[in-house]
Amino acid sequence: SQQGEEDPQALSIQEGENATMNCSYKTSINNLQWYRQNSGRGLVHLILIRSNEREKHSGRLRVTLDTSKKSSSLLITASRAADTASYFCATGLIQGAQKLVFGQGTRLTINP
Amino acid sequence: DAGITQSPRHKVTETGTPVTLRCHQTENHRYMYWYRQDPGHGLRLIHYSYGVKDTDKGEVSDGYSVSRSKTEDFLLTLESATSSQTSVYFCAISDMGNQETQYFGPGTRLLVL
Fold it and tell me: Which chain A residue lies closest to B56 (C-alpha atoms)?
């Protein structure tokens, strides 16, 4: 069953603008992660936020987590053409090994 | 890039034939995972391993089996491929010291005719 639901499914913005993607989930988690996938490639880990954290930054990325609403958002500031990719949220639950449950992804297009 | 390779990278096969996909890592990571990616479904966990000969089922394990006889290799087998198993398959690894973060291989595109 799908854990993470992402919104919007597709987003197209101009270079330099900020991009915001949202993720909602249903059950308890240990952490929530965001991954990027360029067309035809594997996923690349971007940032992780633990369930006891509310906000985290990494370079141009800012992720927030609201466990009471079971939602997260990823903000990419000052977007670049190279940010064009699909972005996936994944909820993590550690039961022995960490199991990740992925959302369907947001397709982000940055127009020059 | 994490040292993960997948083979083959592309495969076309016929319904009913067995297929084995290989994931090889050079990182000596403990945990290994197999996912499939389909349009509209994101990535779904098929099987995972938490050590040599230690494996467990994921969300969509029916029709798949796995084996891990060495730390570096994790094999995914489709005993009798079906058209519904046409997908892109990704292997991922994570380390015991930081098992939260998974590193993904380049993927294998499988087409079952």
Answer: A97
